[in-house]
Each structure stands twice: as structure tokens, then as C-alpha cells.
Amino acid sequence: MTTGLPSQTQVIELLGADFARAGYEIEDVVIDTRSRPPRIAVIADGDTPLDLDTIATLSRLASALLDGLDSANGIRGRYLLEVSSPGVERPLTSEKHFRRARGRKVELTLSDGSQLTGRVGATGGDTVALVVRQERDWVVREIPLPEIVKAIVQVEFSPPAPAELELTQSSEMGLARGTEAGA
Fold first, then answer.
1. 4-24: pLDDT as tens digits
2. DSSP string of 34-103, one letter each residue
3. Alpha-carbon span 114 to 183, nearest angstrom
4. 64: how many CB neighbours lie within 10 A of its CB?
5. Which whole-number Å values give the CA distances from 168 to 89, 95, 118, in the listed order?
6. Which one of 8, 49, 140, 148 counts the least CB within 10 Å of its CB?
7. Locate the Ribosome maturation factor RimP C-terminal domain: which residues (predicted)?
8. CA distance linking residue 153 with residue 138, whole number of Å
9. Lowest mean pLDDT among 15-24, 33-42, 99-108, 164-173
10. Are residues 63 and 101 in the same domain?
11. Are the C-beta atoms of 14 and 53 separated by less than 8 Å?
12. 38 CB contacts (<8 Å, ≥6 apart)?
């Protein structure tokens, strides 16, 4: 350990089980030895969104565990610890990403080249329910995950229509039955 900091793998091994017990998984660890003080950024995600209280709790936990390394044989000197969520710029690439983005507005690019914007509903198996505007109504389309080439969460500044949001919560019905709704 020439930098005096643990490796990405060591941080994941050290923190992974405790983060998992809290309901979160470590998606990435970025160690920046060029910044002063050096920075360890831990990106965590879970089915429950990270709020400020949870980030503070996870930060205290990570700090205590990393400081334990200091006395054992690892970290020399000061470092900056940052615990955060992946943020909206992260593309949705797996079933768990879509499940965690339920209720969020996304822009999809499908394998046929078409684009679709809608709100994420239930995710099950290889399918995500997407609430989309069709003429004057909101409908649920079930999109096979393998057909999604790119998915990006959209930043919103105003709340969604109540009917649209309600469909994201009730969209499990079609997925549970395996039927296509509104396509």
C-alpha cells in the first residue's frame, strides 16, 4: 500500500457486509490519491432511497471501520470519506436499477432505435412496466429489458400527474399475470 490508502477491493470487502445489513450495497468505490487530502468515495444503492440521515449513518459506520484499518496497518494520515448514492446520471442497466427507479421518469432508447419517455412502474423478470402518455390517457406498456439499449433517469422540477403516479403503483397487476397492458 504505497499510497497509505486501502485498495478499492479492500474497501468493498471491509464495508460490504455492514452496508448490506443496513439494506444497501456498494456499487462503486473511487479512491483519489491526487486530491489533498486523498479521497475515498463510496457509492451505495438500495431498494430504499438514501436520505441524508442514512448517508450520515453509513458514513459514521464506514469511518469507524476505515479508522480501524489505520491502527491495524493500513491508512496513514488524513483522508476525506464521502458516501453517496449513484445519482441520476447513472444509466439504468439492470433489473435492480429499474426496480429502484420506480416512480421516476426515464428516457429509453429501444433496440429498434425508437425512443420512449415514461415513468417506471413495476419490474418483474425480464420486463419493466412503463407508464406513458397515449393521446390523452396514461397507459402502462410492458417493455422487455433486453430491448432497452439505454435508459436515463430524467430530472423533474414539477410533480407528476396523480393518475400517472397511481399507475406506477398499480402496474404490478399486469406483470404478475404476465400480460401486456396498453401496448
1. 788 899 999 999 999 999 999
2. SSSS-EEEEEEE-SSPP-HHHHHHHHHHHHHHHHHHHHHT---S--EEEEE---TTSPP-SHHHHHHTTT
3. 14
4. 10
5. 22, 16, 10
6. 49
7. 92-157
8. 19
9. 164-173
10. no
11. no
12. 3, 4, 5, 31, 32, 77, 78, 79, 80
**Model confidence, pTM:** 0.69
Question: Under 8 Å CB-to-CB from 168, ≥6 apart: which residues?
Answer: 102, 103, 119, 120, 121, 122, 129, 131
Of 28-32, 79-83, 156-160, the least confident: 156-160
CATH of the domain at 151: 2.30.30.100
Q: Which residues pair with 141 in a beta bridge?
A: 130
Q: Do the Cβ atoms of 39 and 31 come closer than 8 Å?
A: yes
Tell whether 175 is covered by a domain.
no
Domain that holds residue 145: 95-169
Model confidence over 86-134: pLDDT tens digits?
A: 877 788 988 989 988 888 999 999 999 999 999 999 998 899 999 999 8
Count of domains observed in the chain: 2
Q: Is the peptide bond before 162 cis (omega within 30 degrees of 0)?
A: no
Radius of gyration of the chain (CA): 20
